[in-house]
Amino acid sequence: MAARRAVALVALLALAAAAPARASNDEGDALYALRQRLKDPNGVLQSWDPTLVNPCTWFHVTCNQASRVERLDLGNSNISGSLGPELGRLVNLKYLELYRNNFDGEIPKELGKLKNLISLDLYANKLTGSIPKSLSKLSSLRFMRLNNNKLTGSIPRELAKLSNLKVIDLSNNDLCGTIPVDGPFSTFPLRSANTALLFSFENNSRLNGPELQGLVAYDSGC
Amino acid sequence: MAFKQNRSPLRVLADLSLFLCILLAPVCSATPATAPATLLQVKSGLTDPEGVLSGWSPETDVCSWHGITCLPGEVGIVTGLNLSGYGLSGVIPPAIGELISIESIDLSSNSLTGPIPAELGMLENLRTLLLFSNSLTGTVPPELGLLKNLEVLRIGDNRLHGEIPPHLGNCTELETLGLAYCELNGTIPAELGNLRRLQRLALDNNTLTGGIPDQLTGCASLRVLSVSDNMLQGNLPSFIGSFSNLQSLNLANNQFSGGIPAEIGNLSSLTYLSMLGNSLTGAIPEELNRLGQLQILDLSMNNISGKLSISTAQLKNLKYLVLSDNLLDGEIPQDLCAGDSSSLENLFLSGNNLGGGIEPLLNCSALQSIDVSNNSFTGAIPPSIDRLSGLINLGLHNNSFTDVLPPQIGNLSNLEILSLFHNGLTGEIPREIGRLQKLKLLFLYENQMSGAIPDELTNCTSLEQVDFFGNHFHGPIPERFGNLKNLAVLQLRQNDLSGPIPESLGECRSLQALALADNRLTGTLPESFGQLAELSVVTLYNNSFEGPLPESLFQLKNLTVINFSHNRFSGSLIPLLGSSSLTVLALTNNSFSGVIPAAVARSRNMVRLQLGGNRLAGAIPAELGNLTSLNMLDLSFNNLSGDIPAELSSCVQLTHLKLDGNNLTGSVPSWLGELRSLGELDLSSNTLTGGIPADLGNCSGLLKLSLGDNHLSGSIPPEIGRLTSLNVLNLNKNSLTGAIPPALRQCNKLYELRLSENALEGPIPPELGQLSELQVILDLSRNRLSGEIPASLGDLVKLERLNLSSNRLDGEIPSSLRQLTSLHLLNLSDNLLSGEVPAGLSSSFPAASFTGNDELCGDPLPQCSPSSTRRLPRTEVAVIVAGIAVVSAAVCVALMYTMLRVWSNWRAVSVSSSDGEESAHGGRDNKWGAAGAGDGKYWKVGSPVSSRAAEEKHSSGSETSVLHGKLTEASGAAKS
Q1: CA distances to A183, B654, B717, B891 from B698, in Å
Q2: Is there a domain that residue A58 lies in?
Q3: Which positions are tagged coiled coil (chain A) (predicted)?
């Protein structure tokens, strides 16, 4: 019996040697890291095999011609758990469709690294915390739907930099302060005559309407 | 078996005799004559494979029997029974309780089964009872508590269950109590605290719960306390520090929480301390530095935080310091090994938040193993690392080390493991590495190293595993790699290596895994590859290898994974089919030709077979139906012909079936509906005929269904609506007829729906407006759809592209389409739409989105005539152009028949002349096909992506520049 005492220690000794030649692609690793933090009662992530050369044959993952991840479609999948910084490593991502699930926790600020992102659909989840300022770096973003979550805090002024933004839906959250009036926000009120744009902020009881520059602090009521 | 039947009466008898013995102890012990008979009874219960009991016979003196000890000088008084380690099986008969004079029983390390007989409790002279390492079952008999003289009780490593009987607390002479490696549960009985003479208590590897009872403080003689691998919990009691004789304390792998009691620093005799695998928090108490005798300290896998406050200046005997997987931060203290007296041989700090450099370790001159992986260490690997001349293992991986690998590394002549992966190392591999004759493992992967792989590396003949993945090494693979006869793993993936694979690589006869993928390697595979008999995994994808494969490859019978995708290999597949153990055969995008050999199907465990993008011809072999484990079958983009073989219906595990881009004929098989795991089914771009089988509706997990570009006919079965997981449905370019089934509304996860270029008729079902996740495209163009555009399409708020062109849609454009806030491509051209383009749409989309609808007017089309009525513009125009003055309604009616005949004859002329000013008219044939030519025309006005996307499509097209200008203008207008 006494001889077995050292077993745990021996296992540690082997650690340096145990690390196997790691799988290839960072995008696959990032997605697998995401999977690790999620609960997936319906098994929609079952096909996510980290030993494959790339994630392009994983279901709900779509790659471009160069085998880089372009779409992640996990809408309506009964998934819970939090989003992690690893999503920021999917630098070729254009569509992040995570709507209608039970994601909780905060929106990772690392999403700001997704320079190619066109559509950020996180609506109808249980996300909390504030909208990260880093989202203002999503220079390709056209659609930002964060509605029906539990987001708090003010709408970052920096989002006014998103010149391609066509749709921003922040309704049904618990945001506060005022709505920016610069950049794409200049087409406020909610639905402009030019129907091309949808900017919705409804049902945020602490949101105070458009910012009156110089008169009301943008974070008033926060 | 007979024994079992007699058990109960015997038990009563035994209990009785036990009682009698207690009363009449001197008398009982004076009956030695019974011992041989009892021992023979014991023997009869045992199976004795080595025959060690063969000498046990009534004819000989019991004291001469093997394993028997007698009282010296006396006749036949048996005091010892030692049958340890003879492979004995069977049960311990209760009769053993009659060996009343016995002092020591050792039956350890056999294969005994059945329970520990309670009758052992009668052996009041017993001092040593060793039954450990058997397969005994049942509970620990409480009767053992009657053994007042027992000093050593070791019955662990059995299958005992139940609780530890508190009665053991009565064995007050106990010095050693071993109950480890059983299935005991319950708590540690407080009564054990009565055992004042107890020196060794081993309860490891059970399922004990609760805490360490306070009463245990009574065991003042304890030298070894070992309770690892249980489910003990609560705070560690500070009284542990009062066991002044304690030499070994093992609390590993329990659920202890709270801090480490500083009192442990009082255990001045302690040589071994392990608390690994608990939930301990707080800092490492400074007091631990007082443990001058300590040789092994393991606090790994806890939540210990704070600084690394250990100094071997005081811990002079410390050889192992294991603090991995905690929350330690700060830097390695300068005084970790102050002075030259450090005994520290093994330092494991991996998985903390430690930072700074590793220079302080250079004073730990006795170090043999360093593992500081998975931290945040920075700086260079110090060149003076060669001061640690005894170093065998060096693990610095997963940190932020920078700079070059110093040449002095070559002086570490004992080095066996060098693991530096996932850092920021730069520069070349020093040539001095070739001096590491003992080096077995060299992991440099995921760094920024560059230069050529030095030839000297091939002098490291002990090398077993080499992994340089994800660096920038360039140049050739060293010619003499074949020197590495022990090499089992060679991973050079994702570098900039060029040139051919050296012929000598075939000499690496131990090679099991070879990964050269993602480089710029060229040439053909050397013939010598056929000698790599151990080779199991070979991945060469994304290189520029070419030519036919050497036939010698067929000798590689152990291959399990082959990935040669994205090269220019040609010729036959047969050389790859020598193994019948393949699980992955991936050859996508090469130039392999010939047929798919039926031999592929010999590997019955094949999971992925990817042969897409080659020049394979002939039929799909029916034998593939034997591959019942197959997940992925990709034969797309070859020249395969014939039918889809019915045998494939046996591949019930298929998740991906891609046969697109071939010349397959016949029908879409209805058995596809039995492949319930199918997620992707792509049969597009073949010449399949017949209808779409309704059974496809059974593939309930299907995410992508693509049958486009075939010759399919008949109607779309409403059963497709049962594919409720479907994301992509592509049925375009077929000859489908009938109506679009309203049941498609159930496919409410669709983000892409393409039904264009068919002969679909009837109205667009308003139910399509319920496909609320439609996003990429809704393409119904080039059909015979009629009726009005359903207003419900305005509910598709995520839709980015809508193409309804070239149908027979009439009526007005519903103003609800203005709600399509995400839309940036709209094509309603070439229909029979009428009325005014709704405001909003008119300012958002160019004229090309609306042209070819004769009765559609208003911005961006020509102005609606103020006098015209929306219902009759065609008649109106006809009247005007013909120059006939209409005076009365009666004349009108009378002339109608003639007029219409005239009108229908010159309608074409009229339309073309009225559209003459539209310059983009000529592109009508290819406005919005899958090919995408001319897409830019229908981009939303003012959309910044519109011009960009158009540029991507036609970087130099004149149409683009025209469009560009138009869009800019229009967008200016929209803003003003």
Answers
A1: 49, 14, 12, 63
A2: yes
A3: none
Please report the residues numbered 213 through 242 in chain B whose beta carbons come closer than 8 angstroms to any beta carbon of chain A: 224, 226, 228
HEC secondary structure over B136-202: CECECCHHHHHCCCCCEEECCCCCCEEECCHHHHHCCCCCEEECCCCEEECECCHHHHHCCCCCEEE
The owner of tokens 């340096």 is A16
Check CB contact under 8 Å for A195 and B277. Answer: no
Rounded Cα distance, A120 and A112, in Å: 11
Nearest residue on chain A to B324, alpha-carbon basis: A12
Rounded to a whole number, what is the distance in angstroms from the first to the last CA of chain A?
A: 63
CATH value of B594-857 in 3.80.10.10, 1.10.10.10, 3.30.930.10, 2.40.160.10: 3.80.10.10
Q: Do B822 and A166 touch (CB under 8 A)?
A: yes
Please list every residue in chain A whose beta carbon sits closer than 8 Å to the beta carbon of residue B443. 19, 21
Structural domains in chain A (count): 1
Domain with CATH 3.80.10.10 in chain B: 31-182, 594-857
**Among B213, B273, B222, which Cα is nearest to B244's?**
B222
How far is A183 from chain B, CA to nearest CA, in Å? 13
CATH superfamily name and code, B31-182: Ribonuclease Inhibitor (3.80.10.10)
Sign of CA dihedral B936, B938, B941, B944: negative
The partner residue sitting opposite B819, judged by closest CB among A16, A59, A195, is: A195
- Classify B521 as helix, strand or coil: strand
Mean pLDDT in runs of 10 for chain B (976 residues)?
39 43 41 76 92 92 92 85 96 92 96 96 95 97 96 97 96 97 97 96 97 94 96 95 95 97 95 97 95 96 95 91 96 86 92 96 94 96 95 96 96 97 96 96 96 97 95 96 96 95 95 95 95 96 95 96 96 96 96 97 96 97 97 97 97 97 98 96 98 96 97 97 96 98 96 98 97 96 98 95 97 93 94 92 89 92 68 48 48 49 40 32 36 58 46 34 31 34
CA of A86 vs chain B CAs: smallest distance (Å): 16
How close does chain B come to A207, measured CA to CA in Å?
23
Q: Cβ contact (<8 Å) for B417 and A17? A: yes
CA distance B894 to B900: 11
Considering only residues 700 to 739 of chain B, which have any Cβ-Cβ distance to chain A shorter than 8 Å? Answer: 703, 727
CA distance B767 to B782: 20
CB contact under 8 A, A196 and B513: no
With respect to residue A12, please indicate whether it lies within any of the assigned structural domains: no
ipTM above 0.95, yes or no: no
Tokens matching residue B145: 């508590």
- Bridge partners, B462 (sequence order): none
Q: Sort B894 into a burial class: Cβ within 10 Å, 0-12 / 13-18 / 19+.
A: exposed
Specify whether the CB–CB gap between B141 and B166 falls below 8 A: no
Give contacts of A17 with chain B, Cβ < 8 Å.
Answer: 393, 417, 419, 441
- For residue A166, is it within any domain? yes
Q: Which phi and psi angles does B769 have, rounded to 5°?
A: -65, -10
A47 and B655 within 8 Å at the Cβ level: the answer is yes
Helix axes B889-914, B873-882, angle to 10 degrees: 90
Q: Does B630 touch chain A (CB under 8 A)?
A: no
State the CATH number of the domain containing residue A106: 3.80.10.10
Q: Enumerate residues 496 to 515 of chain B having a beta carbon within 8 A of any beta carbon in chain A.
A: 513, 515
What phi and psi, each to the nearest 5 degrees, are found at residue A5? -55, -35
Domain assignment of residue A7, yes or no: no
Classify the phi-psi angles of B308: left when phi > 0, otherwise alpha if psi is within -120 to 50, otherwise beta.
Answer: beta
Domain boundaries, position A119: 18-210
